[in-house]
Amino acid sequence: MPKMKSNSGAKKRFKVTGSGKIKRKKAYKRHILTKKSSKRKRELGKDTLVDKTNEKSIKRQIPYKF
Description:
Elements: H1 8-13, E1 15-16, E2 22-24, H2 38-44, E3 48-49, H3 52-61
Antiparallel strand pairs: 1-2, 2-3
């Protein structure tokens, strides 16, 4: 049986925390920032956790991180 390949895009986008949860960046902070408030832009810069409904599929894409 050959080795499983990780999804290259997922490897770059997600990190696994010590407790096994998956961390991700927030969207909507790339461009058109002038109309967004400072508070909103500041909050978008922070990392957040992936929802548990999506965790299973992401863990399948990055099997060697667990």
